[in-house]
Amino acid sequence: MPVLSEEISLFPEGLLEDGTLQECGRRWWVVYTKARQEKALARDLLAREIPFYLPQVKKTSIYGGRRVKAWVPLFSGYLFLFGDDEERIQSLTTNRISRTLYVHDLDRLFTDLRQVRQLIAADVPLTVEARLDRGNRVRVRRGPLAGLEGTVLTRRGETRLVVSVDFLQQGASVEIEDFMLEPL
User: Fold this and answer.
1) How far apart are CA 32 and CA 123, in angstroms?
2) Residue of 60, 49, 56 whose CA lies nearest to 15
């Protein structure tokens, strides 16, 4: 079966670039969707031209003995909305949202989202990490992930870099070599 194409995950394209937070009246909201409504909500927001970010990763599953590849949300049930109060209310009229969560530390969330986007763009195998604990903070010195900051952990003899969205207490991890890391 063919790979199901990736749907738009970021609108507008430059949303996660520096200076985005300076837009007057707009702020980040974490949107908790109804079950399996993340992509449908993203399509609705795109049609209404409301800025959002829905991180997606490729997942392979086996159904009836066949491999099926699809793009799925990295954080199940969550979408990140960047809008003013009116745009947030417009998004609620889609009837796809369970609740919106107020973000107190906008700069931290913005930084976390930029790092998650860079990690996905590196096109390396990711593992979703939930209920993260604090570990040793590191920065990647070289390679396609250079500049990323995260937490290092060891699982089954593998060194993994965890890039987290602290607000959700979730993140994604990737296998990495020790020599590529420096402590913060």
Assistant:
1) 26
2) 49
CA atoms within 13 A of residue 163's CA, in its CB half-sphere: 26
Handedness of CA 110, 115, 118, 120 (dihedral sign): negative
CATH architecture of 123-184: Roll (2.30)
Q: Do 31 and 167 touch, CB atoms closer than 8 A? A: no
Residues of the chain with CATH 3.30.70: 1-103
- Tens of pLDDT, residue by residue over 37-93, are 999 999 999 999 999 999 999 888 888 889 888 899 999 999 999 999 999 999 999
Q: Report the alpha-carbon distance of residue 114 to residue 107 in Å, rounded.
A: 11
Q: How far apart are CA 125 and CA 178, in angstroms?
A: 17
> Smallest Cα–Cα separation from 168: which of 53, 58, 83?
53
Topology of 1-103 in CATH?
Answer: Alpha-Beta Plaits (3.30.70)
107: which 2 tokens?
């700069």
pTM of the model: 0.88
**Contact, 40 vs 77, CB < 8 A?**
no
Joined together, the tokens standing for residue 81 give 């909305």
Q: What is the CB neighbour count within 10 angstroms for residue 171?
A: 25
